């Protein structure tokens, strides 16, 4: 079996799941100015580590997080085990810069794994390849290191081999000590303009020793699904070993399905924020996406064969912001009656309709109606192809009709929608069982 076929088998559950929770949490929740605060404000290690001394999420209860994810209809979750600041939310034997050495003395990752597994939610780990705490990660001249312009670091020696060994060891720990892990979400490869010609010019692929890393991971967790940010090319006829199992567009909706060089669909997942920030920020209530927007983004992804991973950024006390909770609970309400049009669905061969989107699973076609239009509701090109039609949410029958004013649309199928307004203005889903 080639890598393309192996990838397809490994990602079967992933394509069924479609919807996940991203969780960005760490020391940066205290400054509450986003997870890049150390880089953006060029904070020294000494100043940033005051947050390490202070960190004590007294209200951290991942059981509540897991219940929210379940209520929202999410089938998997991805937690930052280490973000770019290098702080580890797990009890690593390779560093003291970890949650078990803070006031809380807790292995936050272990509690997350246990709580989400308890709810039957697949477990994902985000792991930053960048590390702004580790002494052997390039500082001066790096594209985003907090000390990138600090003259005192100019010419500093970095034992890169030591850093690569460090992070490979941590990945081994994460895939050994916490049971079955379903997703590894690495972040991210990049180029260093100012370090052209040095070993740090291309922070990608073999600079990370990516092939060795993936080989080790597959030995430990053969079925684990990996993202594409180690730097390999997932679109080749025979994908690179380190290309991962899905491509990961971020905060930008792709025009369509992700295709490889042979035009074959490859798994993809859109990751996005709820409020324009990954890590916790305060007082940004007005920046939260509407429930309608979140539903439409999820439908859009599935209509193009994609997944959606939407983010929550818990605060320094360990709580998911109430705005996020409210939105995800309402999305969950919609999912309760309509998840058949999401889970295991993908793109339809039918042209995108003017009134909304189609998702499809086998001969079950789901019409996501955002715009009521006028009169009998028209499904272009479906005349003679429909076995039965139901409102998905309550399973009630809708009857096919040939309206007096449909003369110009003989190839189209019509159903009578009694009222002038949609049952659910955000997205009313009609289930169409096709004849074949
Ligand atoms: O730099 C990170 C960012 O903080 C966040 O983790 C996102 C989530 O995908 N990834 C990187 C930016 O692309």
TrEMBL record:
GO biological process: fucose metabolic process; glycoside catabolic process
Enzyme class: hydrolase
Short name of one Pfam family: Alpha_L_fucos
Site feature: May be important for catalysis: 271
Keyword Zinc in record: no
Molecular function, one GO term: alpha-L-fucosidase activity
Alphabetical UniProt keywords: Glycosidase, Hydrolase, Signal
Family annotation (SMART domains): Alpha_L_fucos (SM00812)
Residues annotated as domain Glycoside hydrolase family 29 N-terminal: 8-339
GO cellular component: lysosome
InterPro entries: FUC_metazoa-typ, GH, Glyco_hydro_29, Glyco_hydro_29_N, Glyco_hydro_b
EC numbers on record: 3.2.1.51
The keyword Hydrolase is annotated on this UniProt entry: yes
Family: Belongs to the glycosyl hydrolase 29 family.
Record's function text: Alpha-L-fucosidase is responsible for hydrolyzing the alpha-1,6-linked fucose joined to the reducing-end N-acetylglucosamine of the carbohydrate moieties of glycoproteins.
Protein name: alpha-L-fucosidase
Source organism of this protein record: Anaerocolumna chitinilytica
């Amino acid at each position: 079996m080639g890598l393309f076929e192996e990838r397809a088998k490994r990602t079967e559950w992933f394509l069924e799941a479609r919807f996940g929770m991203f969780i960005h949490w760490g020391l940066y929740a205290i400054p509450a100015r986003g997870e890049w605060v150390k880089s953006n404000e060029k904070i020294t290690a000494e100043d940033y580590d005051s947050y390490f001394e202070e960190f004590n999420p007294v209200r951290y209860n991942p059981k509540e997080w897991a219940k929210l994810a379940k209520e929202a209809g999410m089938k998997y979750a991805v937690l930052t085990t280490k973000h770019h600041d290098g702080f580890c939310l797990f009890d690593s034997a390779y560093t003291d810069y970890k949650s078990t050495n803070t006031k809380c003395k807790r292995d936050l990752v272990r509690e997350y794994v246990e709580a989400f597994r308890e709810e039957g939610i697949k477990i994902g780990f985000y792991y930053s390849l960048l590390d702004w705490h580790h002494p052997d990660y390039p500082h001066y001249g790096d594209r985003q290191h907090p000390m990138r312009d600090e003259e005192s670091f100019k010419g500093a020696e970095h034992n890169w081999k030591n850093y690569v060994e460090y992070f490979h060891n941590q990945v081994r720990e994460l895939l050994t000590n916490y049971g079955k892990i379903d997703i590894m979400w690495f972040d991210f490869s990049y180029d260093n303009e100012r370090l052209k010609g040095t070993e740090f010019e291309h922070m990608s692929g073999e600079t990370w020793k990516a092939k060795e890393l993936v080989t080790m991971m597959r030995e430990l967790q053969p079925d684990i699904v990996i993202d594409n940010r180690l730097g390999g090319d997932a679109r080749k006829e025979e994908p690179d070993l380190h290309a991962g199992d899905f491509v990961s567009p971020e905060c930008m909706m792709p025009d369509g399905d992700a295709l490889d060089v042979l035009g074959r669909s490859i798994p993809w997942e859109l990751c996005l924020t709820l409020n324009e920030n990954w890590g916790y920020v305060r007082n940004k209530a007005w920046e939260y996406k509407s429930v309608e927007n979140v539903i439409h983004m999820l439908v859009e992804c599935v209509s193009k064969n994609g997944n959606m991973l939407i983010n929550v950024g818990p605060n320094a006390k360990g709580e998911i912001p109430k705005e996020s909770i409210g939105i995800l609970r309402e999305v969950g309400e919609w999912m309760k009656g309509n998840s058949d049009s999401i889970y295991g669905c993908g793109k339809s061969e039918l042209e995108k309709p003017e009134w909304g989107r189609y998702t499809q699973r086998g001969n079950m076609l789901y019409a996501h109606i955002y715009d009521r239009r006028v009169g009998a509701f028209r499904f272009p090109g479906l005349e003679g192809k429909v076995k039965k039609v139901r409102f998905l949410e309550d399973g009630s029958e809708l009857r096919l009709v040939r309206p007096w004013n449909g003369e110009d649309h003989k190839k189209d199928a019509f159903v009578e929608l009694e009222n002038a307004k949609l049952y659910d203005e955000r997205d009313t889903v009609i289930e169409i069982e096709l004849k074949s």
